[in-house]
């Protein structure tokens, strides 16, 4: 991740200059595309595991791992989507029920994770403040919209990112908006989509029938001394090995030796759980969020009213299970599990009367589905995503249908 924390500004200038030449005429901004909107979707930083591996000796998670670095401190408030009080978080209540060896509860952002997010904020600062002067050097509520899932590690990751991005400088209160768990769109929500819940359940059943995955899992469980009765899968193993490696904790030799296989089989399991990412799964997993991203783009192009200044930067604090279907829907998934502090950035450019999208993942420019190069005509980008983007009413309809009706709809 450290190696990815560069702005890639030289590549960016080259791409934009080439785009300006290919359009053949001078527009605003000295004949080059002008940046209009940046949307960043990022995974939280390193954390404690979500659940320990049963049947094996745990590593010790010392409370000092949760200490807050001084440079990441940046006060903020949390509201619901309409400005009311922060909603209740059932996830946080559930995390409190599991305490790891050492006294730390599961799912908590650590000092390492805070530093990762601060570094991501510094990278964004270099790109959008120091190199391009796109954003003000201090936080302004009129320029930035911040939304997060209602989970502490994401809220705290957002704080650290903002501290790095604006170097703890602000002109007005920092507000992070969030939603109730049952209506959240920043992750695949099986709580408000029963059809998605049923398809995930069926997906797990298909994983349990995959001979290759079962054989590899049995082999690792045998080497770890875990009985067949213990509920262990590759996603659980990957979660623990990622957390331990990020904090330089002494992972079990078996986990270290099989780390590449564990990651590959976790990805394989995800594909089977989601029925190889069929259209309907992606519509229900990422469709509402894709629709929100599309709406942000349309508002930047045509503001709803002339007296409302549209945001320049929109931040979404999400999860690995959010980024996975997004990467797949955009046709850029690299078969690697999204690391801690992974970020997907969408830049919107205007050149004369034309609009373009540029996609960056962990600092690397990618070519989305339906596009021929890094600076993609907006129409091509939106047409390719229209298969998966789902408006709220359509989402409710799909989620309430039977599987047979969904297949017929598609």
From TrEMBL:
A GO term from the CC aspect: mitochondrion
Family designation: Belongs to the histidine acid phosphatase family.
Coiled-coil ranges per UniProt: none
A single GO molecular function term of this UniProt record: lysophosphatidic acid phosphatase activity
Catalytically driven reaction(s): a phosphate monoester + H2O = an alcohol + phosphate; 1-(9Z-octadecenoyl)-sn-glycero-3-phosphate + H2O = 1-(9Z-octadecenoyl)-sn-glycerol + phosphate
Record's function text: Hydrolyzes lysophosphatidic acid (LPA) containing a medium length fatty acid chain to the corresponding monoacylglycerol. Has highest activity with lysophosphatidic acid containing myristate (C14:0), monounsaturated oleate (C18:1) or palmitate (C16:0), and lower activity with C18:0 and C6:0 lysophosphatidic acid.
Extent of the signal sequence: none
Alphabetized InterPro entries for the sequence: Acid_Pase_AS, His_Pase_clade-2, His_PPase_superfam, Histidine_acid_phosphatase
E.C. number(s) listed in UniProt: 3.1.3.2
GO aspect biological process, one term: lysobisphosphatidic acid metabolic process
Superkingdom of origin: Eukaryota
The protein's name: Lysophosphatidic acid phosphatase type 6
